[in-house]
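Hey forum,

I'm writing up a methods section and want to include a predicted complex as supplementary material. The small molecule is flavin mononucleotide. I've pasted the protein sequence and the SMILES. Can someone with a working setup run it? I'll credit the forum in the acknowledgements.
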Amino acid sequence: MTDTIKIGRVTIPRTAALAPMAGVADRAYRLMCKKYGAAYVVSEMVSAKGICYSDRKTAELCTVTDDERPMAVQLFGSEPDFMAEAVKIVLEYRPDIIDINMGCPVPKVVGTGAGSALMKDIKLAADITEAAVKAAGETPVTVKIRSGWNAESINAPEMAKALEAAGAAAVAVHGRTRDMFYSGESDSSVIKAVKEAVSIPVIGNGDITDADSCVKMYSETGCDLVMIGRGSYGNPFIFREIEAKLRGEVYEPPALETKMQVMLEHIRLILELSEKCEELAMHEARKHAAWYMNGYYGSAKFRGRCYQLSSYAEAEALADEFIQLQRSRQASL
Ligand SMILES: Cc1cc2nc3c(=O)[nH]c(=O)nc-3n(C[C@H](O)[C@H](O)[C@H](O)COP(=O)(O)O)c2cc1C
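Reply by user p_vandermeer:
Happy to help. Structure tokens for the complex are below, copy them as they are.
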């Protein structure tokens, strides 16, 4: 296996990338994943139309800091003209890559003809891609798709071919249909079929939760890069674990104490990057804190308490209490 892949002019280590996740993978999250080895990160999706009408959230969503690179800004939209205009605006933020979302299943997005609705209109998907590619110049444009709209219309290989012809520099494929939303299992055979259909890099996505499932995705599909979403919840370490596995190195999972330190580091970063007061910024931090506590004795109760946190000091005290609980549990076994 090669060590890196190229998407247009951008070189990316061939380990694992962080998937775009609206409401989760904000700058603090991306920086944490980057610090623990994510090869590449993607912004939360941004509305192309919203950008054109100078949505106040544009700068917050499109800013790319050097520590996050290589990074893509992801756009969604259903009109080639708006997409081209949005790409030009986004280029001012100097993203390494511009990604177009053609996989989002939520009614609010699909209802506008964007996201996975484009899986039903390959011609329009290609036109949007072509418009974006023209506007983007040297900056590569990639597209993230699903396996199809529903089980009766699995068309990711055909879609990927059309996107390649329209100038896409890579495609990311989530092996679920739109109808599945996030349930059922991601089908890696569709990702393999896409890989066989196109010559641009193919990024495999869906249900990667550890190094073994990542290696399986690489070997079963022949994909060029793997992308991880929910498997990184409270677990930025997954990227190091994968890196170690791919290099044949021994991986030592972090001790609980380290995990809690990293959780607190993540919360500090959320507070530092937020423009909100501590109490409101802690609302953002709550779910992340809860995810870091997953999978331990008494987790459910502690996760509930995470959803009440309103200051950093409380988070510190809760982390200490959680560590004490695990220690006394160990001692009693
Ligand atoms: C909370 C959440 C938000 C998401 N937001 C986006 C998004 O903004 N753009 C996008 O292309 N996909 C989005 N996705 C889909 C993920 O990028 C990914 O394709 C999906 O979660 C499957 O990968 P996984 O099994 O590794 O989580 C989102 C998923 C989740 C769970």
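Some notes you might quote in the supplement: The pocket of flavin mononucleotide is lined by residues 19-24, 44-45, 74, 101, 103-104, 144, 174, 182, 205-208, 228-231 (CB under 6 Å). The CA atoms of residues 4 and 13 lie 4 Å apart.
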